Amino acid sequence: MRGRLIYLMGPSGSGKDSLIDAARDSLLGLDCVVVRRVITRSAESVGEDAMGVTTEQFAQMRREGDFALCWRANGLDYGIPAEIDRWLSDGRHVLINGSRGHLSEAMTRFPTLLPILLTVKTDALRKRLERRGRESAEEIEARLERNALFSTDAAREDSEGIFQLDNSGELSTAVDSLLALLTREGISANADRI
Ligand SMILES: Nc1ncnc2c1ncn2[C@@H]1O[C@H](COP(=O)(O)OP(=O)(O)O)[C@@H](O)[C@H]1O
Ligand SMILES: O=P(O)(O)OC[C@H]1O[C@H](OP(=O)(O)OP(=O)(O)O)[C@H](O)[C@@H]1O
User: Fold this and answer.
1) What are the DSSP calls for 109-167, one per residue?
2) Which amino acids does the record list as binding ATP (predicted)?
3) Rg (the chain; Cα; Å)
4) Binding-site entries
5) Stated pTM of the model
6) Pair 43, 152: CB distance under 8 Å
7) Ligand 2 pocket check: which of 19, 74, 100, 162 to mutate, most ligand atoms within 8 Å of Cβ?
């Protein structure tokens, strides 16, 4: 049986990387691979288990078909390695840190993907971005402005079918909610692979 693609999205600073890190062992227990993204961000400032490349290297990888999905946001290019197709057809589940802006293209490519939106209250989001301290004040404002575009009434109406997890409280609460959601969706280690 094919594995399921889990598409975790949410504003920059909402805690996607923190959630993925905290749930990593449990995800492995579900035979779920956490994808290492390719990002045009310097390796020192990546802050997640990603591969940092230059814009030229990214463009070349894209031309060579190295990405199953890729998008541009926040002045950066993000790529999801093409290997995920093999993992999914081998029956492994795959979790990616995705983009809200790229969801419809991702759904076209992977119609059965499980879309999960990590939310956080706006004042907490600002504090988290400031505390993380990776971006300049200007870059933080740009991220908050981008987030506002996804928080309009029209955008909310488009969110039907998207599972929402709140991470305004303790991270452990969001981890428990994520694992409960995966269980409800029938995501478990594939018996055919054991
Ligand atoms: N539930 C939480 N409570 C408090 N701080 C959090 C929580 N989740 C994440 N953080 C902090 O918020 C900042 C942004 O989290 P991060 O995982 O980098 O977000 P993202 O990957 O979505 O950009 C980090 O400094 C992280 O430690
Ligand atoms: O379309 P959006 O939902 O706004 O997403 C745009 C990008 O921002 C997020 O990355 P990340 O949280 O790593 O942002 P960062 O690059 O600011 O860390 C997300 O994973 C996307 O790659």
Assistant:
1) HSTT-EEEEEE--HHHHHHHHHHH--S-HHHHHHHHHHHHHTTSHHHHHTTTT-EEEE-
2) 10-17
3) 16
4) 10-17
5) 0.94
6) no
7) 74
ipTM over 0.90: yes
Q: Where are the domains of the chain?
A: 5-186
Tokens of 74: 């926040």
Q: How confident is the model at residue 49 (pLDDT cuts 50, 70, 90)?
A: confident
Q: What are phi and psi of 51, to 5 degrees?
A: -100, 120
Provide the residue type at 31 as one letter. D
Give residue for tokens 């062992």: 25
Q: 5-186 maps to which CATH number?
A: 3.40.50.300
Report the run of H or E that residue 52 belongs to, with start and end.
strand 51-52
Residues 6+ apart with CB under 8 A from 43: 52
Q: Which residues are near ligand 2 (CB < 6 Å)?
A: 9, 11-12, 16, 73-74, 76, 78, 97-101, 143, 146
Beta-bridge partner residues of 115: 7
Strand 67-73's sheet: what is its strand order? 51-52, 38-39, 76-81, 67-73
